[in-house]
Amino acid sequence: MMGKRQSAGKTGLPRQIVLSDARNDGALSRALARMPRGGALVFRHYHLAGPARLRRFRKLRAQAGARGHKVIGARLPQHWRCDGVYGTAREVAGKAGLRLATAHSLREIGMAVRARADAILLSPVFPTRSHPGGGVLGPVRFLLLARQSPLPVIALGGMTRARAARLPVHGWAAIDGMAAT
To answer: Do the domain assignments include residue 4?
Structure first.
């Protein structure tokens, strides 16, 4: 796998993904507009509840759709009409649409494979504002784990376009880094 980009296992698997968060809410429209067609928005917005969360979801879903991006839900009601689901192996198992599983270790990669995920968001590659002072995989350990994955790997955690260009995996995802590039 080293030296070559991973190929997509499932048709239409995005190579760039922006994850929504309270911190990047004001920059999401810009990030969606700057991403190449075929990217994805993982709608989380855990900081909003009820009607406010639904209103924000609908607005971002319309913006993403207008740019040709998929909308992936994280802990959303099924009737909100997403293109897939994002979460732990347990959260994506048996769900319809594109299944993006989070992983931080070889054990969690195996769990995602058994859950029949379509891709793995492996993190954190680099230090992040989401988890200041938290442990990171670093690029070498990240690539060693990515090589063990039979599923396409998407790098997450402190990612920017420049860092992503140096990692020979399927794609990259960011909370802050997508809007900043």
So the answer is: no
